[in-house]
Amino acid sequence: MHIEVIGQGPALVLIHGWALHGGVFAPLVDRLSAHLQLHLVDLPGHGASRDDTTPLRLPHVVNAIAAATPPAVWCGWSLGGLFALHAAATLPQVRALAMIAATPRFVRGEDWPHAVEPAVFEQFGQDLAQDYRGTLERFLALDAMGSEHARQELRTLREMLVARGEPAPRALQEGLRLLENTDLRGALAQLGKPSLWLAGQRDRLVSARAMQAAAALTPGAQAHVIAQGGHAPFLGHTTEVAAQLQHFVAALP
Predict the structure, then answer these.
(1) Which is the catalytic residue, given 16, 86, 203, 207?
(2) How far, in whole angstroms, is CA 227 from its chain's centroid?
(3) EC (predicted)?
(4) Predicted pLDDT of residue 74
């Protein structure tokens, strides 16, 4: 698995969302590399790890990342949050957890109302087989939708999508299944580590209410809403997200 290391200071592992790669965090790298040692993961089937056949499942991926990184704070965006949360709940070397536009459960349920309908991920899976590039384009549009910087963010996401080659269809289907079927809420009460939950106020995929609900289930959690932010707030509101992450890591014992 490709993991790029940039910067110096306390270690921060950054895990990207569905269909993208570690390069999407470039704006954060510019702000944080003077203060933190950033470990930018390309998940299996994505970016420079496109030919990595490691199954896109939580234990497999988390153990592979952990074997290649030092004790660190783990930060996950969107789908990447599931890997970061699983690692924080199971691995002592994870010092703390940061979640950006990510929750322990992405689909709606009777006791989890502020989430996506299960049929949405099922439809994306069906559409991928029929119109691969069109489906990715629609997903990127959802990533940017709502943000006050939506056009700029969508342009950046489009460029990033192909910057390291298109993601493997197998990995995209496995990622959708993770989003559709994973529920890690049971890990929150016993997490026992500092956590930071950064939500975009205008996020159309992961609502700020869902992130606040998850933080409320996590003892000692900090929650912050990025005003006017969408699903990728580190693109349009880089300074605010970077400041939150830097302060969170600096305050750790």
Answers:
(1) 203
(2) 19
(3) 3.1.1.85
(4) 98
- 78 labelled as ligand-binding? yes
| Residue 8 to residue 153: CA distance in whole angstroms | 28
pLDDT at 147: 85
- 87 annotated to bind ligand: no
183 labelled catalytic? no
139 has binding-site annotation = yes
52 annotated active-site: no
Distance of CA 251 to the CA centre of its chain: 22
Q: What is the signed CA dihedral for 28, 31, 37, 43, rounded to 10 degrees? A: 10
**Which residues have C-beta within 8 Å of that of residue 61, sequence separation ≥ 6?**
1, 43, 44, 54, 55, 83
Sequence-ordered strand ranges (E) for the chain: 3-7, 11-15, 37-41, 72-77, 94-100, 195-200, 222-226
Residue 102 labelled as part of a binding site: no
Return d(Cα 234, Cα 20) in angstroms, integer.
Answer: 14
* Catalytic annotation, pick one of 2, 21, 149, 231: 231
142, pLDDT greater than 90: no
pTM above 0.70, yes or no: yes
DSSP character string of 134-188: HHHHHHHHHHHTT-TTHHHHHHHHHHHHHHT-PPPHHHHHHHHHHHHH-B-GGGT
Helix 58-67 / helix 79-90 crossing angle, nearest 10 deg: 70
Residue 203: active-site member: yes
